[in-house]
């Protein structure tokens, strides 16, 4: 689906929810999950070289995704302005 069509069909609220989810869980796009692919290779190599005992799992080699730090209202507002601009809106101040 082209980006323009996706943006036309997705509300700003839904887009913000997906952005928040991705920040907590890591990249959504499987092609960008090189960390998972590297963890599989690392576990295979480590298990081939280990002595007898329990096998290591790819999860043992994955980085911990740190939750985002608390953000100030000003930082959140700047994100809202950027998302609004990306969706074709404009920023207006009320006077």
Give a description of the structure:
The chain has 4 helices and no strands. The chain has 95 residues and is an all-alpha fold. The longest helix is centred in the middle third of the chain and has 16 residues, at 34-49. The chain has a domain at 30-64. It is elongated, with a radius of gyration of 20 Å.
Give the H and E element order: HHHH
Structural class: mainly alpha
Number of strands: 0
Computed CA radius of gyration, to the nearest angstrom: 20 Å
Characterize the overall form. Answer: elongated
Low-confidence stretches: none
- Measured by DSSP, the beta-strand proportion falls in under 5%
Q: Which sheet architecture does the biggest sheet show?
A: none
Level of helix content?
40-55%
Counting DSSP H or I runs of 4 or more residues, the number of helices is 4
Task: Sum this structure up briefly.
With 95 residues, the protein is an all-alpha fold. It has 4 helices and no strands.
